[in-house]
């Protein structure tokens, strides 16, 4: 099931409000889903590399 634009906006606002790093998943499974590439999913989903960098910086501080 895909999120609507409203769903995405609401989830992003919640993440920001609660200081949570917003992430996304491409549902990449290698050759089992050849129409989906790593970091890019259906529609306009793109997970920026900065998300990984932010998650790494948080985990380094733990």
Q: What can you tell me about this protein's structure?
A:
It is a single chain. The protein has 62 residues and is mainly α. It has a domain at 24-62. Helices cover 40% and strands 0% of the residues. It is flat. The N and C termini lie far apart (34 Å). The model has no long low-confidence stretch (mean pLDDT 80).
Number of strands: 0
Main sheet specs: none
Order of helices and strands: HH
Query: What structural class results from the helix and strand content?
Result: mainly alpha
> What's the total helix number?
2
Instruction: List the uncertain runs.
Output: none
Average pLDDT over all residues: 80
* Cα end-to-end separation: 34 Å
| Overall spatial form | flat
Radius of gyration: 13 Å
Work out the helicity level.
40-55%
β-sheet strand percentage: under 5%
């Amino acid at each position: 099931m895909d999120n609507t634009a409203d769903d995405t906006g609401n989830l992003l606002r919640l993440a920001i409000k609660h200081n949570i790093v917003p992430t996304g998943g491409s549902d990449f499974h290698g050759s089992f889903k050849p129409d989906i590439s790593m970091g890019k999913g259906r529609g306009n989903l793109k997970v920026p590399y900065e998300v990984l960098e932010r998650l790494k910086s948080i985990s380094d501080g733990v």
